[in-house]
## 1
Amino acid sequence: MLDRNAPPYLSAALWRGLKGRCPSCGDGKLLHSYLSVTPHCPSCGEPYGHLRADDMPPWLTVFVVAHLVIPPMLYLEQLYQPNVWAQAIGWSVLSLALTLALLPRAKGAVLALMWSLKSEGTERG
Ligand SMILES: [Zn+2]
């Protein structure tokens, strides 16, 4: 029998966080602007204002963007040696776009992970 009040699995909570949705219900928005955490879920009322993701979302974003951009950049350089200015502009724009797209998703996933682990979200013990 499915318990409707049971917390979601970690994978479901992470997926909801990646989509910017409340890890608990999946309906309400987790971020009310680009990176600001909503104090409470507008749908289920779950509190999120106390969670502080700190530096984890930017570190995660840099890790992912670097692994997405650097291999094709090196591969393209090996094959065609394109113009340096074209590469500098192109790879910079791609890196910036990926960073801006992935940063709120990384923050949502980190907040969902903290929520799932019942992390207090503060540095106090
Ligand atoms: Zn909710």
## 2
Amino acid sequence: MENIKLQDDEFRLISRLLYNRCGINLTEQKRALVVERLQKTLRAGQFPSFKAYYKHVISDTSGEALLHMVDRLSTNHTFFFRETEHYDFLRLRVFPQLLERLQKQNSRKIRIWSAGCSSGEEAYTAAMVISDFFDDDLSGWDVGILATDISVTALEKARSGLYRNNQLECIPPAYRLRYFKPSGKGTWSIAPEIQDMILFRRLNLMNESYPFKGLFHVIFCRNVMIYFDNATQQKLINRLHYYTEPNGYLFVGHSESLSQYRSMYKYIQPAIFQKI
Ligand SMILES: C[S@@+](CC[C@H](N)C(=O)[O-])C[C@H]1O[C@@H](n2cnc3c(N)ncnc32)[C@H](O)[C@@H]1O
């Protein structure tokens, strides 16, 4: 069956909508991706053209159609222990420093946010690293990891805590043994005590403010900003800064940089910044 064609004005409409609602910048190079990823949706809904589909999305007051479109067009690629130096930095620098500070404040509360968590690997990796740091004994500690994403499909996968054999490849064997159990048909489930540390929520990072009561000691916002244009990135960094504890850390993806932005974060090492 031949693909439904995407006209220039239709591509402009769809990319403007995605940009306005999610900050995602669909450049001309992403044209083929739009055609490919939305074909099935157009066929299933029997839309004769992208314009007809676009009209349906903007007139659907439930927001479901837009959600579906975002799900189809966002890139959710992720894996356990991605950019592994970040987790070494957590173990060797962040946690020891944090524990010392918390002791002085007489607090035992640790808060981490995985912003743009996709299917959960980033948040679960952070949870395994914390658990390991505390020798799997977190009694007396209040550790909470918030993991948010705009994609409902990605969040569903994350909440399930189920991963296939090949998705476990980057996990050090000792962690795999401790924190995963076979759950049949080549899938593995993450340990409930690791899962219980994480709260998965849908959140659009483009919102002007976020419904959080407190600040975070560590924020991961990795490989998310890459899809936003400069103005959107700047606004997001300001918001992330607002929600970072003083002396807290922001981790970004290695292909992302804060250097071109006026920012109150101090550069520590590639892709790691500290709020001063
Ligand atoms: C490539 S994944 C990165 C996942 C993980 N942080 C990592 O580095 O492996 C990017 C994620 O950002 C999410 N995302 C894109 N735009 C977003 C927005 N406006 N608000 C929240 N999440 C968004 C996508 O749904 C996707 O799951």
